[in-house]
Design goal:
- The protein is of the alpha/beta class and about 325 residues long.
- It contains eleven helices and eleven strands.
- The strands form two sheets. A nine-stranded mixed sheet has the order 1-2-11-10-3-4-6-5-9, with helices on both faces. It has a two-stranded antiparallel sheet with strand order 7-8.
- α8 packs across α9.
- The two termini are about 40 Å apart.
Length: about 325
């Protein structure tokens, strides 16, 4: 652990300005680095009140990207230093959900263990519990890494990311009945007929005569989320595909603004917001990017706060909301 890294007081001249740029009925977008925002009254006011911290931080890539990822040991120290102050924002039964993608060693077809090391460092630094490891599978993702998949043909397509669900308690707020998958054709047939082959299975499990005859509204989802939409809660299907991003991308193009290159899938945001929070709860994304988290939270009637260091990405994220720009901007930016 970096010695007291999360409590190191930086001098005022080392801190960059933090300000709320726009707000909706349910949330606000803050401009600034998360390191600075954590020392600002805007976030201090919600300390201990965040029900879900949902984010996709800059991935620990081997090369720096425009969106500001650290690399190597610097990434580990950085993510570790944020763990405790971010965890301090959580409500007693709140959760942290972090999506971390895969990384590859530079110039060779070898995967880096840095994403896993980052997760372990983050967990240990804030003394968090690992509630569950979820795989986010996106079969539509373009083949990568291109050098080893498309050219050398020596590796398989990288089509998933790790999603880590953590909490300060073993029993955070969660209800899988909110994210049930549609029943299969066979299960619907079984519920209709009210008959199936009960008894002892080869595994030794004893299936009762009535154990599968109750309609619970859907099947409990696995810890592999398929973003294709084929196996996804019906209530959240509107967040799958590319339609949710269409208005955002059109807005960025019309305003000549850069679209964020590593946007979180709206369906992934929707799944965990629905699963781990109730209407009116507070959702925070400390690496807001294009503000997928905020816009999905707004649609699902949750309060939200997003923090983003790049002002151009903030300006583009206005396109995720229906109101005109001037109706969203707060007074300190006019």
């Amino acid at each position: 652990m970096v010695e007291n890294a999360n409590h190191v007081e930086r001098s005022k001249r080392d801190r960059e300005a933090v300000a709320a740029i726009y707000q909706t009925d349910l949330g606000q977008m803050i401009h600034g680095k998360i390191e600075d925002a954590l020392e600002d009254p805007l976030l201090d006011a919600v300390r201990g009140k965040v029900n879900l911290l949902l984010t996709s931080p800059p991935f620990p890539l081997v090369r720096k990207k425009r969106y500001g990822n650290e690399t190597g040991e610097a990434y580990l120290r950085w993510i570790e230093s944020l763990a405790e102050p971010l965890a301090d924002l959580l409500a007693p039964d709140g959760s942290i959900v972090i999506e971390i993608g895969n990384a590859w060693e530079p110039g060779v077809p070898v995967m880096s263990t840095l994403p896993l090391e980052a997760l372990f460092a983050f967990k240990k630094a804030a003394n968090l519990k690992l509630c569950q490891h979820v795989i986010c599978h996106n079969p539509a993702r373009l083949p990568s890494p291109a050098a080893w998949v498309n050219i050398a043909r020596s590796r398989l397509k990288d089509s998933y990311t790790h999603v880590w669900w953590l909490s300060k308690t073993e029993t955070p707020k969660a209800d899988n009945r909110k994210v049930l998958n549609p029943y299969s054709k066979d299960m619907r047939k079984l519920l209709k007929s009210q008959k199936y082959n009960a008894g002892v299975r080869p595994s030794g499990h004893v299936i009762s005569e009535t154990g599968f005859l109750t309609d619970h509204g859907g099947s409990i989802g696995p810890n592999v989320i398929d973003l294709s939409g084929e196996h996804f809660p019906e209530a959240l299907l509107k967040f799958t595909g590319t339609k949710w991003d269409a208005a955002y991308r059109a807005y960025c193009k019309a305003k000549s603004l850069p679209a964020h290159p590593a946007r979180m899938q709206s369906s992934l945001s929707a799944f965990f917001i629905q699963f781990l929070t109730d209407e009116g709860d507070l959702v925070l994304d400390p690496f807001g990017g294009s503000n997928t988290t905020g816009s999905v939270a707004e649609e699902l009637k949750r309060r939200w706060i997003a923090v983003e260091a790049d002002r151009s990405y903030i300006d583009g994220s206005l396109g995720r909301f229906d109101l005109a720009d001037e109706e969203l901007l707060v007074d300190n930016d006019r």
